[in-house]
Amino acid sequence: MSRLFWLLVLAGLPAALFLPGLYSRAAHPSDTSPAAEAHLLEIGTSSAARKAVPPPADIKVVSYNIRWRGGDDLHRLIKLFREDAEIGGAAILGLQEVDRNKKRTGNQNTAAMMAHELGMYYAWAAPNSTEKEEQTGVSILSAYPLNDVRRLVLPHKGPGGRRRVALGATLQLGGGLQMRVYSIHSETRMKVSRKLEQMKAVIDDLESFGKEMPAIVLGDLNTWEPAAVDDTFKLFTKEGFQTPFSDESTFFQRVLLVPIKLKLDWIWLRNLKASGHGIDRTIKLSDHWPLWIVIGKPQRSDVRFGARRELKLRPAAVCYSEGRSHLLRF
């Protein structure tokens, strides 16, 4: 860690990118009730989105921190999601650093635009902001309708009192099949133990759907420390998840010509099997690389059990989908 820290300092990059507690913590807005933050959960669809039909034997899933792409980069990314040999044609996209109405991305609604262009259902969520603009958010885009969409404010504040969120949704795959998916963007500048508690908050939410519910937990968990990588493997494995990915890097930057590679991004499966996976390192639109995985469709017996347990909802203070949200149609 010390070598990485000094490389960042010498390069003039903010040391607090990797050191928790280096910034003073400003007061977080006091009104964090579901009603006050309902506008930070958006659910919508494209008119071209298909109705629920039985899924094919294989379903491709992509996790990607897109680093708030907009403009021409966003159009290139949409084209890649259609045509790329590795990530193209995915039925499920879990994205992080997805802007909505921010100046740096032309005040576009990135998730809604992508859903419109790709013909998909979508949900987007962001934490409350201490600034004039919204924080960047997380998104799920799906070829299948979304149900029981939940915005989860992750425990523990980061620098300046900022928060991070996860987004969960149940995908209605058709033919009576369904699957739970979460997209997470964990805090960078935080102790490893607290990062694990952010991950555990998502796993705890999943428990309300029953142990047999097929599930995917993916995203940028910001596990840049070796201990964080090891502990993440232990946590998810203990909770009954599997991943075909090892500790290979998913993030790349050069600092003073020295390559910095980190394991930040993950895809975890529960009650699902992977038949293929990879990291598309040819795509350089972000400082992260997209991960992709191909899974077999869930088993009907698993889904029925999960559906029965779905009635056990979490409190409204955590489940922000109980408040009003925007429904956009193109």
What features would you describe in this structure?
This protein is an alpha+beta fold and 330 residues long. It has a single domain, classed as Deoxyribonuclease I, Chain A (4-Layer Sandwich). The termini are far apart. It has 6 helices and 15 strands. The longest helix is centred in the middle third of the chain and has 16 residues, at 192-207. It has helices at residues 2-10, 71-83, 110-118, 192-207, 226-238, 300-309, and strands spanning 41-45, 58-65, 92-98, 121-125, 137-142, 146-153, 165-174, 177-185, 215-220, 251-255, 258-262, 265-270, 274-279, 291-296, 326-329.
Distance between the termini: 48 Å
Task: Give the overall shape, derived from the CA principal axes.
Answer: globular
Q: Helicity range of the residues?
A: 10-25%
CATH class categorisation: Alpha Beta
Task: Name the beta content range.
Answer: 25-35%
In CATH terms, the superfamily is: Endonuclease/exonuclease/phosphatase
Order of helices and strands: HEEHEHEEEEEHEHEEEEEHE
Largest sheet composition: 8 strands, mixed
Rg: 19 Å
At the fold tier of CATH, the topology name is Deoxyribonuclease I, Chain A
Number of β-strand runs: 15
Assembly of the depicted chains: single chain
Domain module tally: 1
CATH architecture: 4-Layer Sandwich
Structural class: alpha+beta
Q: Which stretches are poorly predicted, pLDDT < 50 over at least 5 residues?
A: 5-31, 301-330
Overall mean confidence score, pLDDT: 83
